[in-house]
Every structure is written in C-alpha cells, then in structure tokens.
User: Fold SalK from Streptomyces uncialis.
Amino acid sequence: MSTLPERAGRRCHHVLNPLHSTHYFSPELAAELAALGIKDPGAAYLAVRAAALGPVGPGVVSAAFYNFSHAMVARHVPEVWRTAAPPEVLAARLRAVDAVLRRQLGEEALASPEMAEAAELALRAAEGCTRPARPMYSAHADLPVPDAPHLAFWHAATLLREHRGDGHLAVLLELGLDPVEALVSHTATGWGMTPTWVLASRGWTRADWDAAALRLRDRGLLTADGELTDAGRETRRELEVRTDRLDLSPYEHLGATGVARLTEIATVFAGAALEAGAFPAEAFGKD
Assistant:
C-alpha cells in the first residue's frame, strides 16, 4: 500500500516533465546540433533523445520511442551517428539545456537555494528508479550527474521522465493501443499534440492517422467526430493509473514530504518556463 497521497507522483511528474522537455523546442538546441552538422529537425530530436543509448540502429530507437514511424527513424538512424557521435550529441544537448534554463528561468533562479534543493530532492527520488525493462531510463542513468545544480536538476528530471515513459509504453502494449492509436487517443483528450504536429514530427501520414481513428471507433473508444467516448476516457484513465503504479518507486523512495516539496518548487520553475514561451502554442490541442 502506497504511503503517498493519491496521484502525488503523477502531479510531481507533470511539473518536472516540462522542465525536461523544453529544450527540444528551443533555438539553442537547434543551433548546437547544426554546429555538429545535424540540421534536420527530425534527425536532431532522434539523435538527442537516443544518444544515451549509444550508436544504435533504427530498430532499437523505434522500439524505445514507440510512437515514431519506423520508416522515419530509419531515414535518420544510424546515418546521424556518422555526422556526430553520441558523446558529441550529449555534450551539445547539455550546453543547450544550460542556455535554455538560463534564458527561461534567469540567473537568480539558477543560483537560488530552491534550485539546489530541487536538484537534491529529484536526485534522491531517482535513486528509487529501477532498470529492468526500462531502456530509456537505464541508458540515461549511466550518464554522469552534472555538477551545476540546475543541470543536476534537469538530469534528475530526465531520469524521472524516462522512467515513467518506459512504464507508460508497457501499459500501452497491455491495453492494446498501437503507436498511432496512442497518439490519436491522447490528442482526443485535449492534452496531446495536434494532428498536424504529430504528422510532421512523428513521421506518420494522414492516412495512418485516419486509419488509427477508425480502429478506435470500431473498438468504441472514439466518436465519429474524433472525441473520446466514455469507454475511451476510461481507457485513457486506466492508462494513467497503471502508469502511476509502475512509476511509484521513485516517489515512495523520496517520501510524501519530499514529493510535496519537489512538486512545489518545480511548479514555480515550470511556470516561469511556460511564461517564457517554452513551448510553441500550435503544438498542442486538436488543431
């Protein structure tokens, strides 16, 4: 039985994840990778997120990322490693994260006691993560923890994000939501990426999207106008509940008081990042 308040781990994740993710959308990351010769946005994302896995082939990336078209992945991987080796990409990523956090949060926040506290709490939570069947978390857990508190905090947020993500994919498989069905149903909640953004960034076609929507309608999960049915909403709810169970260990390890404090601090930092325009408005919603 969990000693945490209901959904405490999920709430903490929801304010940590934006602080992990904002660099993907930043000009700083694009500039760092362009300097290495990686200029295609699709190749850039795949390289940055997969670099911790080493110079792997497209099969590993498709399996670990789940909702990207394998054909798109294979266009860039392993070719991207001939442009820049994974250690170069990881170093460029960390430089970009440093610049992004300085721009979005400001120097005062980065030097604050709260940032150091957040780093300590998040790293302590990450001690409770587990490696088996979690390739993205495990690969990132092999990387060194940066010295600077804001980068250590980002590193820990990344560990916690990938740990939850690995478990989330296991539940998608269990619930029978394939990669495109997962994307369509997530967008239908109102919280996912827009179809336009998905098709551009994940490599699927409009025909793929429409076929997945039809499969969801046939299963009674989606209406003809693309809204979730009661059964669809229950499936998405069950997806998050089961993901919470698989992601409980780091937050149990930190404890209720620590989770509450980490959530409080991260909420302030995430709010500042959002106010600074961390994410493009057109990327999320239903188009």
User: Anything to note?
Assistant: Residues 93 and 161 are 16 Å apart (CA to CA). Residues 14-274 form one domain.
